[in-house]
């Protein structure tokens, strides 16, 4: 299969630890190096520096809960990022590990076999967040009104 991205990486995300596998292809030689990083900002910056030092141009990660967001924001602008749907990049059952998953994602990305999910640009993401917050406030107001109405009805019955 044709290699679309000779210098790419796959990142397997977790709550406290992520595993990155860098895949570098020069001619027919394919080199892979995997490392684990924490999820604190300082450690994500170390991940970014490591990827830059290897000349990585493309990075893929799974859309795992909300764990991907902090990694995305740190790497955004330095790499061509792809957010993959976990169902579309599922590896064959068997020996599952974070290193194997990161390696698998890097191989899929290298051959152009990952279709990215939509990640809105920052202004639209901010608008979405404001809309979600407003929706939560409106629901909370309705809940509070319901409790007040219920309390008033109980007070009327007691009189």
Walk me through the structure.
The chain has 159 residues and is an alpha/beta fold. The protein has two domains: 104 residues, Ribonuclease H-like superfamily/Ribonuclease H (Nucleotidyltransferase, domain 5), CATH 3.30.420; 40 residues. 45% of the residues lie in helices and 23% in strands. The chain is built from four helices and five strands. Strands 3-2-1-4-5 form a five-stranded mixed β-sheet. Strand 1 and strand 2 form a beta hairpin. The longest helix is centred in the last third of the chain and has 37 residues. The termini are far apart.
List the helices and strands and how they pair.
Layout: E1 7-12, E2 17-26, E3 29-38, H1 41-53, E4 58-62, H2 67-75, E5 80-84, H3 98-110, H4 122-158
Parallel strand pairs: 1-4, 4-5
Antiparallel strand pairs: 1-2, 2-3
Helix pairs in contact: 1-2
How much of the polypeptide forms β-strand, as a percent range? Answer: 15-25%
Q: Could you tell me the mean pLDDT?
A: 90
Helix segment count?
4
- SS-derived structural category: alpha/beta
Radius of gyration: 22 Å
Low-confidence stretches: none
Return the CATH class of the largest domain.
Alpha Beta
What helical percentage do the residues reach? 40-55%
Q: Which sequence of SSEs, written as H and E, runs from N to C?
A: EEEHEHEHH
CATH topology of the largest domain: Nucleotidyltransferase, domain 5
Distance between the termini: 81 Å
Major pleated sheet: 5 strands, mixed
CATH superfamily of the largest domain: Ribonuclease H-like superfamily/Ribonuclease H
Task: List the strand order in the largest sheet.
Answer: 3-2-1-4-5
Oligomer: single chain
Overall structural domain count: 2
């Amino acid at each position: 299969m044709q290699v679309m991205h000779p210098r790419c990486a796959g990142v397997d995300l977790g709550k406290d630890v992520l595993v990155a596998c860098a895949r570098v292809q020069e001619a027919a030689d394919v080199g892979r190096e995997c490392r684990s990083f924490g999820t604190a900002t300082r450690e994500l910056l170390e991940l970014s520096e490591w990827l830059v030092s290897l000349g990585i141009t493309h990075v893929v990660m799974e859309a795992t809960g909300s764990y991907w967001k902090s990694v995305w924001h740190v790497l955004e602008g330095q790499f061509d990022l792809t957010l993959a749907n976990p169902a579309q990049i599922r590896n064959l059952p068997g020996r599952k590990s974070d290193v194997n998953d990161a390696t698998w994602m890097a191989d899929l990305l290298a051959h152009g076999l990952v279709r990215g999910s939509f990640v809105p640009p920052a202004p639209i993401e901010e608008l979405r967040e404001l809309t979600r917050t407003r929706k939560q406030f409106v629901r909370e107001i309705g809940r509070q009104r319901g409790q007040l109405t219920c309390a008033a009805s109980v007070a009327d019955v007691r009189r």
